[in-house]
Amino acid sequence: MPSGGRMSVDFRYLLAGKKYLRPAPSLDLFASPDHLDPDLKLFLDEASSRLCAWLANAGQSGPLPSLSVLPDVSPSIEGLPAKDLLDDLQLVMEGAYQPSHPGALAHLDPPPLTASIVADLICAGLNNNLLAEELSPSLSRLERQICNWFAERIGMPSGSGGVAASGGTLSNLMALVLARHKAGLQNDPSAVVLASQDAHVSFVKAARVMGLSSDSFQKVKVDSKGQISIRHLQEQLTQLRVEGRRCFAVVATAGTTIRGAIDPLQRLHEICSKDDLWLHVDGAIGGIFSLCNSTAHLLKGLSKANSITLNPQKLLGIAKTSSLLLVANKVDLISTFSTGLPYIEPPWGEEVHGGEIGLQGSRSGEVLKLWLGLRQLGEKGIQSLLEQAIYRRNYLEQKLNTSKLNINSGPLHLLACTPHKLDNRASEKWATETRRKLLDNKFLVSRPVQNGRHFLKIVLGNPHTQLSHLDQLSVLMNQSVES
Ligand SMILES: Cc1ncc(COP(=O)(O)O)c(C=O)c1O
């Protein structure tokens, strides 16, 4: 075991002017630049054994641990050796949510692909910075190429590209900042963005960050399928014209958070292009289905969007965080976000530094785990992951008692349900009690509220969930509405 945080025995008191400094920290704490460091290797081996054991125990443990003990938070005076650090880590692991349990069905957080775990570890070891080319020579290029690959696969025009971001909230914020900048409306707090009432809450945050007035994020009604109502959208656009207000973006959602509905992208593109409006598609949940031959038709029109958010962390199993903002014209990213980096060497060739094409400055090479994960899955793996998820949703939907349960589901891998007969208040009691009962049986589902009504939501993106688990889940759900 490495000596961990212990100070080197060779105490080197450094003289700086007349003042004695503390001893230099042991160099054992950093991997040797001259030879393979046996202590680091042992540390990593032991850490990965413990992680593998934690993952292997998922089936026994259940998706949610009981309240666990946390290790000390403050650093000890002398620092700790590796063994103690690993024991502390173990305590945190024991209290962690377990996405690999087959009953982990509450959220859009599937188990991580093994290649993405490995790539994340390597990424930490490389400690490169996507801020600038010389701090991440290979990773900067990899990020550009992966974004180009996604844009091309979706069918976006030539000149398209993108940037990685730490989560869909940030991708959506960048998209709106970009759209407003392109429209030249940065100084107009009354400029409007329109999105359906089921669009993700990240747009509310974006509107606040952007200093938009309280009625500048305007919601548009959805129809019975949870898709944006085209009629209401058109009425709202007309009303804005009457009021002399400018709209800088229309947001479409490809996969809404509660039921997985996909807005009519092609129709929205037609409306937006007629009025020269920016169309942003929040495809954090559903955009990825455009990679699969059997589901790409669900996203018809996606390729025409001006910008698209994708979250490979959601269904592809790329370890968090992994999100991309794709744009039809990558020059727009530069004109919106570039400030110049006066303390950094110019980029090589024609390209632009990674810190100049988005909101983040220093950022890690998150693209590494996305790239390695895609390489591990291969085309067949990607298709089957997506198709299986939809198959599981279909299967469960057919098993649920629709005479008692109202099922809200789009064409993707999530569904939400609530009993027909209950009023809002009774639906809360039902959702709370049923969720508790399901958790006793090691199923974790979520409990969203929409228009005052409580639902149970089930996300079927966990590849460990077998049909037998869904049989058991449906029996419990159906029992919950038996009178
Ligand atoms: C449709 C949609 N967009 C955006 C987001 C935000 O993504 P993130 O949590 O990665 O910030 C979510 C999160 O669930 C979402 O469902």
CATH topology of the largest domain: Aspartate Aminotransferase, domain 2
Number of domains: 3
- How many strands, which pairing sense, and closed or not: the largest β-sheet? 7 strands, mixed
The chain-level structural class is alpha/beta
Give an account of the 3D structure.
By secondary structure, the protein is α/β, with parallel strands linked by helices. It folds into 3 domains: 15-98; 120-374, 3-Layer(aba) Sandwich (Aspartate Aminotransferase, domain 2); 387-480, Alpha-Beta Complex (Aspartate Aminotransferase, domain 1), CATH 3.90.1150.170. The protein has 13 helices and 14 strands. The strands form 4 sheets. The protein has a 7-stranded mixed sheet, with helices on both faces. A 3-stranded antiparallel sheet has the order 10-11-14. Helix 6 packs across helix 7 (202-209) and helix 6 crosses helix 10. The radius of gyration is 25 Å and the shape is globular. The model is unreliable at 1-14 (pLDDT under 50). The site of pyridoxal-5'-phosphate has 15 residues, from helix 6.
List the helices and strands and how they pair.
Layout: E1 15-16, E2 19-20, H1 38-56, H2 58-61, H3 82-94, H4 114-126, H5 137-154, E3 161-165, H6 168-183, E4 192-196, H7 202-209, E5 217-220, H8 230-243, E6 247-253, H9 265-274, E7 279-283, E8 307-310, E9 323-327, H10 331-337, H11 367-399, E10 405-409, E11 414-419, H12 424-440, E12 449-450, E13 453-454, E14 456-459, H13 467-480
Parallel strand pairs: 4-5, 4-6, 6-7, 7-8
Antiparallel strand pairs: 1-2, 3-9, 8-9, 10-11, 11-14, 12-13
Helix pairs in contact: 1-3, 4-11, 5-11, 6-7, 6-10, 11-13, 12-13
